[in-house]
Amino acid sequence: MVPAVQLAPVTLFYAVFFLVPLGILVAYSFATFSDYQTTWHLTFANYREVVESDVFRKLFVRTIRYAAIVSIIVIALAYPFAYALTFIFPRRAQVLYFLVLVSLFGGFLVRVYSWRTMLGDQGLLNQGLMSLGVIDEPIKAFLNSGYAIVIVLVNFLLPLGVLPIYNAMQNVPAGLIEASRDLGGGRLTTLRRVVLPLTMRGVAAAFAFTFIATAAEWVTPQLVGGTHDQFVGNAIQYQFGTAINWPLGAALALSLIVAVVVIVGLVVGAVRLVTR
Amino acid sequence: MAVTAVVSACGSDSDGGTTSSASTAAAGTSTATETTAAAPVSADACKGKSLNFIGLAGEEGEKELKDWRAAQDMQLKVNNNADWGQLIGAIKVGQPYDLNTIPVLEGQRMIKAGVVQPIDTSKLKNWDKIVPALRESPAIRGEDGKIYGVPIIWGDGPYVYAPDRVDTPPTSIMELLQPEWKGRYTMFDDPGLPFFMIADAMGFDPPNLTTEQLGQVKEKVKELVDNAAAFQASYQDATDRMVAGDVDLAIGGWEAMLGFAKDKGAKLDYKFFDESKGGGYFDGMAIPSTAENPECALAYIDELISPEANAALATNLTSGAANADSVPLLGKSAQVYDYDLVSKPTGGIDFVAYYPPEEAKDGYASLKDWQDAWAEVKAG
Fold first, then answer.
1. Which of A31, A115, A186, B30 is deepest in the core (most CB within 10 A)?
2. How far is A127 from chain B (nearest CA, A)?
């Protein structure tokens, strides 16, 4: 069978469920919205508003900042875990790996509400600190804040960081590790000079997964963030929902996609350059 | 007394159906749909049919009309909208809904967006029993004078608070700008209520604000949002936050939240800000322009505003009944409203429009201006 025929189902699926919706989004982003109606007078006005608006600029900066923070923390936690799984506890690796996968099955909203319970005034954290005498009254900043957003997203996205890094570590040839040790390299030297360079693409993939997922968020800021912690996703939701200004919402969504693709592309490109 | 007033206000013209009190009391709003005689809609229109509803949870009469639907061998599919834009959008793109919620504050937007169709109220046996303040409301009338929605429930606009943590409930929304309220309340992510009430507290005439006034109001609203703990995702979400002890007050309140909290073993109470002016809301049923079974939808609406069904609906939703004859049948939980407020077309409860028009007069702020100001406030 010729490759083109073999690829046809995938190509069709990709076209119907990705390219067509994206095309519709692109079309809407150039439409005109007036008097509650979308009309097909093509315009750049929506993109001009996205670029020129101080409000949207703040939201983009905030979103990208949080996405970077969450990604860095996830990688900082996922890398040692994946390392331990691969090189320190290889016999228990399958069980631990399974536990990571199981955590992905938990409902997202259930977890958000669980964290809300734990971070609230009467929650585990505040009450624990109060019972230990560390604080006299609940710290409100644990909930309805940027901290809460980061905690919830790191918790939820950690498996997405562990999986690609763990897979990358599986591909590190055992011979190279042995060679490093035979040449007198300690565990840290081997990690720094052998394992890390060979797993950087896994790290890049983990960054891409977590960065994209965080940048697209709007539920977590809504449920555990404060009134000034909204992301671009909240603005998109507001434009498609309350304001029913689909053209502006589409322009915001596409601008976010472009911004995320550029940033992730730069990071992945830089990693490839360094590890070539 | 309240019950008597409202029944007497409606009962006198409830026998005909061709010349409703709507056509006599609402000057300038009478329409052919109200005055032209038509055969009452029959339940037979729903025999073997299926209605597709989109709107607020619990308002579709799923529980209240269960037996009626079974008698007609009809099905009801229920879809709940996250917000009004979603509902409008869904109908605009052609999704085939037969019934939708039409809230007073969004009525004109839905009518202008063309997502709902005119309703021939002369076919409704229970139309004349609707309390005057709702029946005569301009919110459900289009510029063509036609009626586009049938009120089913109403309520006022309180704030809800935790009495064990709020010793002195605020009387003005401006009190929430004080430091002692920092991080203690939630509000909806919507400019209408905060802009309206703060503008009123500042002595302006909302929703008619000049662009300069809007700028002044925006600064105060910013203080209000700065002090808020979070945006509440829903009434239930606000209740949960108060029950958990994370916040003490919800600006966007509903008497039903007291019941939600009671189910969880907590006590909440409600009051009104002076600036809300006793302002309230009502929700109605409308027939989307995409309806595949409009005649059945009309029969269903008529049954939903029958005395028994409407009383059950209002009781289950802790709301005011739209049908005056439902008032004596209400359950205890819904007996919290003053029906004198809705016994006249005007002069009672003020079903205020919290939003300015899309196209404002020169020098005045439009809806887009309010939304932009709100976006600025939220961006911090």
1. A115
2. 12
- Residue B238 tokens read as 């606000």
Q: Residue A199 carries which DSSP code?
A: H
Which chain A residues touch B226 with a CB distance below 8 Å? Answer: 227-228
To the nearest whole Å, the CA of A158 is away from the closest chain B CA by 26
| Confidence (pLDDT) at A238 | 85
CA distance B154 to chain A (A): 22
Residue for token pair 């003005």:
B172
B130 has which bridge partners?
B323
Kindly report, residue by residue over A188-230, the tens digit of the pLDDT.
999 999 999 999 999 999 999 999 999 999 999 999 999 999 9
Confidence check: pLDDT of B348 > 80:
no
Confidence of residue B38 (pLDDT cuts 50, 70, 90): confident
Please answer whether residues B254 and B161 qualify as being in contact, where contact means their C-beta atoms are separated by less than 8 angstroms: no
Q: With 70 as the cut, is the pLDDT of residue B133 above it?
A: yes
Chain B CB contacts of A218 under 8 Å are: none
Residues A232 and A168: beta-carbon distance below 8 Å: no
Q: What is the ipTM of this complex?
A: 0.79
Rounded CA-CA distance A127/A125 in Å is 6
pTM of the predicted structure, to 2 decimals:
0.76
Radius of gyration of chain A (CA): 23
- In the 3-class helix/strand/coil scheme, how is chain B assigned residue by residue? CHHHHHHHHHHCCCCCCCCCHHHHHCCCCCCHHHHCCCCCCCHHHHCCCEEEEEECCCCCCCCCCHHHHHHHCCEEEEEECCCHHHHHHHHHCCCCCCEEEEEHHHHHHHHHCCCECCCCHHHCCCHHHECHHHHCCHHHECCCCCECCEEEEEEECCEEECCCCCCCCCCCHHHHHCHHHCCCEEECCCCHHHHHHHHHHCCCCCCCCEHHHHHHHHHHHHHHHHHCCEECCCHHHHHHHHHCCCCCEECCCCCHHHHHHHHCCCCCEEECCHHHCCCEEEEEEECECCCCCHHHHHHHHHHHCCHHHHHHHHHHCCCEECEHHHHHHCCHHHCCCCHHHHCCCCCCCCCCCCCCCCCCCCCECCHHHHHHHHHHHHHC
With tokens 């939980």, the residue in question is: B333
Record: contact B89-A238, CB cut-off 8 A: no
Contacts of B108 in chain A (CB under 8 A): none
Q: Across the interface, do A55 and B229 touch by the CB < 8 Å criterion?
A: no
